Structures are given as structure tokens and as C-alpha cells.
């Protein structure tokens, strides 16, 4: 028998087996989607496994992924998981032709793995295992039945196999093929139905949350931020606005599905060490308190030198220190037993901030509004924390639901368990926004402009130099507040050639940004931003 003939003989059953595997995988995902509607969306197997991958990703790899894929890192991860699942499905499907029971067990095992992973995530609970388990049982059953009666392979007609002593090749008979097509089509239709129903139900939950957000009108804050000083915004082409619009605001979190919390059912509890009056509040309770409005520049510890993971917004919220004081909390400097405040989100993220810092008089907020509207879902609706001067991962908990007073000694929150520093004040930094690296410019006057930030301290000076020459003072925009970034501009007489532009900032404590380059791990990058441009 020629190789080609043999291929023709093996391929149809192998193809049918692969198809069975894919159908079983599709059924699993569809049933899991349906089950997730009863538990929560985060418990979908792909979400759970993806989340677990994120949880286990070492800090440098996470930063690499963020830098290369940006906010698409999550999409890439999910596609990767689906691809692996597809490969597994095809393999198991083909093997099922020979080892039906073992293949079905492998599917069960795979689902069990998903279930254990889902329940074992930092925020995981028993019910999270359900979608993976239900999906696994459905997938294994489908595989077992599909490969069984309809796809049993029978010995082919004599003569198909030529060599002496070799078992006759096995083929699908016509009748069984028909039966298989009917069974496969039924399974495909049923799982598409289950999947669509699951999607619908999940979408309904999201719609409820969206309706609660749309219905919301935030009361006017008792203490306003005031209008932005006219001199604070330089309006240089290529330089972004002083206040970052919500749609342009960076997003960094581990959530594969953005939590969509219904404001009406949202609760916040305050408990732990030194809490003499534990609190439990609903969203309406929060809105009844005195609201303040503050412009604060948020910065991510993963922001590389020159990076864009920083943004400035006008936040509306209640003062965190007041709420804590009401619960009886005293900072360590006044004898309080807790030095760490753990903020816990609805999906189980934990971020730890120094109690001393959030109660030292700075505008640490439980924010409900961002740039004049309720928080967008991706930025933490209905309530998040914002603390000026601390990197996001030690302060800016989104989808907040619990505040627990504890000690640094006693508990390491999520990022600290993964190698990041326990305490991380934002480092003084400056960035060139225009011109952009590798721009080609005409010789003559060029506005070099950007932003600089040193939250809590304020920016005192920004200097620019060309090709490593002498530093020149840039012109600083008027300061909005010490907690917001400050724009700057420097007029450059550009001469033909290739030039490097470099910036450094000095904050009001007198310290100048260091030239020493360190990476983002464990407590934020240092070094100076430089861009190379061509002038002709
Ligand atoms: N629940 C939750 N909150 C979170 C995070 C997260 O992963 N989950 N990431 C933090 C980090 S690292 C940063 S920098 C800020 C980013 O806030 P943004 O996405 O609104 O810009 O949120 C913080 N709050
Ligand atoms: Mo971050």
C-alpha cells in the first residue's frame, strides 16, 4: 500500500476524532458559560486559568507583557489558553478513537484541573469550581458518546492492508458516518444553544450593573477642587491635556473580566486591628457623607521611564481618613496597633497601604467619581481608593469592598507576595511628550515639552539638555497642586543632524531625578527620559 493511500485511509477517522474532541471542548465551554452565569463570570474556566497564570507570572515577565502587548496582554493570554485547549481537544479526540474511556477521563481530569485552579485563586471560593466541573462532565460525556456508537471503527475490506500479518486497516462505514454527522450536528447545536443562553444570562448581570451606573447622579461635592489655573495648561501641540480624559486613562489590573458591580448591592466593611466601631456601608450611605473633589495624578509602578502608565484625573470621593477615624482607627504615630491598611476588591485583589500615610492629612479618597462622571467600570465602579503619592499597586484598589486594618508583619498583599516592595511612594519623574523619539523635524525653533510629577512634594524645576551638553531650565507651567503632574516646555534652536534630548526634574524637597537606571521591580523605575530626533 502506498503512503498516500494509507494517509487517505487514516485521515477521515482521525479528522472525525479531532472533530469529536473539538465538539467536546465546545460543549465544555458552553456548559461552563451557563454555569458561570449561576456563580460569577470570573469562574469561567478560561478566566480562572488565565487569572491563575497572571497570579503566577513573575513581576518582570508581567512587566514585559504589559510593555509588549499593553492592555491587550489579557486578550493575548486568553487566545493562548484557547489555542492550547484546542490542541488538547484535537489530541484527545484522535486518541479517543482507540482509547475511548481514557480520553473521556482525560477530559474530566482537565476539567478537574480547571476547577482546582478556579477555587484556589486568591479570591477563589468553592462555587468557583462549579463551571469547570460541569463543563468537564459535559465534555467527557459528549466525547464518550460521540466516539462510541456513531464512530466505532470497523475493520476495512480485505486487501486494504497489504502486508502480511498486519491488522486490517480500520475505516468508518457509510452508515456510521451518517449517524456520526447527525450526532455531531445535534451536539454542536445543543452546545451553541447552551453557550448563547449562558452569554445572555451573563450579559443580563452586566446590564443591571450598567443600569445602576447610568441611573446614578453624583451629589455636588462640598469641597471643590476649583478651576484649573489658566497657566497650568500649556497647550503645546503634541503635549497632552492636563486632565486625562477617561477614555485615554491607562488601565492596569489583573481582571480578565472587568467586574461589573451593581451599586445598589455594593457593600463596604471596615474591620480589623484597632477598629473599635466596625462599619458596614452601602453606596447610598457613602454618597450621604461629605464629598470632596481633588485632582490627583495616579501612577503605576510598572511605568517605565518615559512610559504612559500615569494619568491625571479629577476625583470625587469621601475622605478615607475620616471614615477610618469614625471606625476608631488611630495611626501608629498616635498609638494605633495597625500599620497596614488592606483594601480588598470584589474579585479578591488585595492592596496594602501604610495607615500612617493615608491618615497624615493628604487627600486619600474613597473615590466614586472620575472627571465628572461615576467611575467607569474599568477604573473601579462603584468605589475605588486613590491616595496621592503612592503607586497604584499599594493604594488605588478598584472595585473596593473591604478595608482591613492589620500590620505589615502579619500580611503580605497580592503584589508583595509576587516580589514587589511593601511600601512604594511614587518617585520623582519627568517625561518628554514632544517631539517623539525618532521624529524628523525642520531646523529652527522647536518646542520640547512634557510633564513631570512628584506627588505630595511638587515639582520645583525641570531641565533639558541636548546631546549630553549643559542643562537648561525649562519653563514650568503654573502648578495645579502638589498632587498633580506639572507641564513644562523648553524652546530649542534645532540644528541639522541627529540629536538626543534629555530631561530631569527636581522636586521641592531638593532632590533631582537620578540618572541611574533601575527597572520597575521592586518599587518603581528610575533614570532619565531621553529621545533621539532627526533635524534637517
Ligand atoms: N482590584 C484591583 N485594583 C487595582 C489593581 C488590580 O489589579 N485590581 N491594580 C492596581 C494598579 S497596579 C494600578 S497602577 C491602578 C491602576 O488604576 P487604573 O486602571 O484606573 O488606571 O489600579 C490598582 N488597583
Ligand atoms: Mo500599577
From TrEMBL:
GO biological process entries: sulfur compound metabolic process
UniProt GO molecular function: heme binding; molybdopterin cofactor binding; sulfite oxidase activity
Ranges that cross the membrane: 75-95, 102-120, 132-151, 180-198
One Pfam family, short name: Oxidored_molyb
Residue ranges constituting the Oxidoreductase molybdopterin-binding domain according to the UniProt record: 256-410
PANTHER family: SULFITE OXIDASE, MITOCHONDRIAL, SULFITE REDUCTASE
Name of this chain's protein: Membrane-bound oxidoreductase
Source species: Streptomyces xiamenensis
